[in-house]
Amino acid sequence: MTFSILAAAQTAATKTATAAPAAASNPLADIRAWWDSSVAWVNSHWLQIGIAIAAGLAIYFLLSMIRGFALKRAQATPGEFTLTHIVGRVIHKTKSFVLAIVAIRMVAGYAQPPAVIMQIIQLVFTVAVVLQVAIWAREVILGLIQRRASDGHNETLSNAMGIIRLLISVALFAIAAIVILDNMGVNVTGLVAGLGIGGIAIGLAAQGIFSDLFASLSIIFDRPFRVGETIKYDTSTATVERIGLKSTRLRSLNGELLVISNTNLLGKEITNFAHLHRRRITFTIGVIYQTTPTMLRDLPALLEEQVVAGGHEFIRSSFLTFGPSSLDFELLFDVFSDEFDVVAAARTDVGIRVFDAMARAGYEFAYPTQTTFTAAPDGTMIMPYAESPKSKAAAAKAAKPG
Fold this sequence. Notes:
Blueprint: H1 2-24, H2 27-44, H3 46-76, H4 83-92, H5 96-111, H6 115-148, H7 155-183, H8 189-205, H9 207-222, E1 230-233, E2 236-243, E3 247-252, E4 257-261, H10 262-266, E5 270-272, E6 279-287, H11 293-309, E7 313-322, E8 327-335, H12 340-360, E9 374-375, E10 381-382, H13 389-399
Antiparallel strand pairs: 1-2, 1-5, 2-3, 3-4, 6-8, 7-8, 9-10
Helix pairs in contact: 3-4, 3-5, 4-6, 5-6, 6-7, 11-12
């Protein structure tokens, strides 16, 4: 008896397992079953569906009005690449389809749709929102980049914006695709690993190009120098003529065109002369050792007087050192100007004033002198010329007392 029951149950299970694939493999039956369940849902929840549709339309029109009002306010604000302008760009990129699917998702739960319809709504909502967020992020990033480099006409940024837009778009939409696939239940671990390996390979292959590109972007955003400014790096002093994607072109003081890659240029210590609101000038003045102590004490005041008379800021003037052939003083003063020609003219004017004042006061400028003494092998000093007998007699007479 027990054996017969078990055999009958096994036979029924076998028939059921055999019939299940046949039923599952019939798409017409699935569509008919889905249609029947949908019709039954509409018949039983027609009031909730009507209320949900009305609420969804109201939400959609409300969101559309808010978008239109915010866009109008943003476009009415003067100025380009301001924060308000960037917000306006983001609002302008908001799609009507996204607003519609957001409204549908907000009211779908009230209508209690079948699980299949709810899953479709959830999938479309996820795809639309993720793609919309990627578009918003792209506009914000590009807007901030253009705002950071919006002072004046920037040729480098104009040339680089195409590449920047492409790189940002690829990165953001790749992330969006991974998020969408992950929400759909796809295992994205292998995809993420593949993208990582591919990114490393591309980065290694184009290392030099990307290095110079990011260096040019660093110059644009950090602004260590700009076109038209004079800079010094290593032993070269030149004026910046053009900042390119890969290299920077400079015009040296002698007229040569210097071309250096952006990576190498940023790797050096750069001195920018454009932001000097004052320039300090130093003079070293040497006077002869025969100068009296009184004249030495009066010299700093005399130098200060000439600097003040020229209209510049006196810093200090003091004794510096005992030189090989001079008593050295230093003079420091500041010239308030950004232009090198004005500074050079001021240095010339003060130098001439100091020379004229010191000459009138009786100071003598020292210059290198040298005296040579000759000695015999036994150490006796030998004069450079023969001493006459008359001179010897005069010296002996002078040496006698009284």
